[in-house]
Design brief:
single chain; about 500 residues; mainly beta; Lipocalin; Immunoglobulin-like; Jelly Rolls; 3 domains; ten-stranded mixed sheet; eight-stranded antiparallel barrel; 4 helices; about 5% helix
């Protein structure tokens, strides 16, 4: 029945409703141009047989002078539930003064033979100051079906100086489940965002900024349900009543590989489990450090002259959110009876540290086995970091000619590499410190733009994966993902500043 009434209402509104409200009273002259005529900004409420089917629908109406004591009223481009219902027009409606306000009424006999539609239309209007209320009562018959439609409009007269801008300037959802913040397409009138595929709920509370002086429905800060492909319609009304409609919805889901460093475990040197212990972030089968190598060097530091600390330490209160990983570049020239390089940067990476005693510092780079299995197409590498560069920059690239206090400024390194997990013969590929930056099996890279000192501040980053020349993602292939963080960007060349300190937190790989 409701559908039939909506159909009926569409038919009614698609024609001019009023050919005349009443006869003019030429003996009375009212200040129509000065007090009544103008554009009114307001909203519509629509009910069907007593049941509300639409409320607070933004719309403007125009009241103009028809005669000395009569007015016209027009409501253009009436759209409801996606239907263009045309124009509602009341013409030559006689005014009646009621104290300090005015009233007008009109009747119309409806007879649309094409659709076997008949009925009576009664209209009442009340203008008080700069306010107007218009009631439309339609008693209609579609064949033998009788139904009642009631439309109530309430509006305020505009001054003419109001802004016509009706835009959503920003649309933000502060929820960890949202991995890609909403993107506004002004031309299409859409707002799309992506969520974690493991999100427990699709109910979010958008915080919205709109044009100055405008209003929005639903309001900012009101929770909305975006589950099951639901779309939420936001209507922005400018000061002058101009309306812009936006549709917000979840564009898709994303996989998220995330490390927040909230959980830590204790590790020990296999050869000295009772004496050499350190904290490491979980999961231990995905995240690795070079702390085992530091433990080995500490074992030879009988007099504690190097005062070595483990490169990854638990920092409960130092994180961007909760705890974080802390990486420190250490001075190790001569440590381990000369086996260690001049500096040892703090490092954290996905993969494992395959420790064994190696005399050649360059061969020590092969101990870091980067990467874990990854079966998505990576889109972004996100996270936060804080960095303080040390003062004594050491160039240990030539072990026989180490240079200290070179005056250079250290930088940190934070990047992620997608690489092929097998070669052309089907053999496993494992990139290490000698190949992570140059291997032919690298496919895509995402890294921070600058690793300079952050002056004590946390810096967020969100870097897009870019594909190397001639490379593309192939879902039929197997891949590994290597996340690499170092307190000295050139640490793989044994160059860096002593005590350079890097904190990293909330690392994420967002994939498709």
């Amino acid at each position: 029945m409701k559908k039939s009434l909506l159909y009926l209402f569409m038919l009614v509104c698609s024609v001019t409703l009023f050919t005349g409200c009443s006869d003019d009273d030429d003996a009375v002259v009212y200040p129509i141009d000065a007090e009544i005529a103008g554009v009114y900004k307001g909203t519509l409420d629509i009910s069907l047989d007593g049941t509300t089917i639409g409320s607070d629908i933004p719309k403007n109406i125009t009241i103009s002078k028809a005669g000395d004591a009569s007015v016209n009223m027009e409501l253009k481009d009436f759209n409801f539930m996606g239907m263009d219902l045309g124009t509602i027009a009341l013409t030559d409606c006689a005014l009646e003064k009621d104290g300090n306000s005015y009233r007008f009424t009109g009747k119309q006999v409806l007879n649309v033979t094409q659709y076997n539609l008949t009925g009576d239309i009664n209209a009442q209007g009340h203008i008080s100051g700069n306010k107007v209320v218009v009631d439309l009562d339609i008693a209609a018959k579609l064949g033998d079906l009788e139904q009642a439609v009631k439309v109530v409009y309430e509006g305020t007269k505009l001054t003419g100086s109001e802004s016509s801008e009706a835009k959503i300037a920003s649309f933000i959802i502060d929820d960890e489940a949202v991995v890609e913040q909403p993107v506004i397409n002004e031309e299409a009138g859409t707002i799309v965002f992506a969520v974690n595929e493991k999100a427990a709920s699709f109910k979010f509370t958008p915080i919205i900024e709109i044009s100055e002086g405008a209003t929005i429905t639903p309001a900012s800060g009101v929770e909305q349900d975006f589950s099951n492909n639901k779309k939420v319609t936001y209507t922005v009304m400018a000061e002058d009543g101009t309306v812009k409609v936006y549709t917000a919805f979840v564009e898709g889901t994303r996989s998220v590989l995330k490390y927040s460093f909230e959980e830590w475990g204790e590790q020990a040197d296999e050869k000295n489990p009772d004496n050499m212990k350190w904290f490491s972030p979980l999961p231990l089968d995905e995240l690795a450090t070079a702390n085992n190598g530091v433990a080995y060097l500490k074992g030879f530091d009988f007099t504690n002259q190097y005062n070595l600390t483990y490169g990854t330490l638990e920092e409960k209160e130092a994180g961007y959110k909760g705890s974080a990983a802390k990486l420190i570049t250490q001075y190790t020239k001569g440590a381990g009876f000369g086996m260690a390089p001049a500096i040892t940067p703090g490092s954290l990476f996905t993969g494992k540290f395959d420790f064994r005693m190696v005399l050649d510092p360059k061969e020590q780079l092969t101990l870091t086995k980067f990467g874990i299995a990854y079966d998505k197409k990576p889109l972004y590498f996100k996270g936060a970091y804080k960095y303080e560069a040390g003062e004594n920059f050491v160039d240990g690239s030539d072990k026989e000619n180490v240079k200290e206090n070179t005056g250079e400024t250290d930088q940190c390194g934070i990047y992620a590499v997608l690489y092929e997990a097998t070669d052309k013969d089907g053999q496993e590929v494992v990139l290490d410190g000698t190949s992570i930056t140059n291997s032919e099996y690298r496919v895509a890279l995402a890294e921070i733009k600058s690793g300079v000192d952050t002056e004590g501040k946390w810096v967020e980053f969100n870097e897009e994966f870019t594909y190397l020349e001639g490379k593309s993602y192939d879902s039929s292939k197997q891949y590994k993902m290597a996340i690499v963080c170092s307190s000295s960007k050139e640490g793989d060349s044994f160059r860096g500043a002593v005590n350079s300190t890097l904190f990293v937190d909330e690392l994420e790989i967002v994939g498709e």
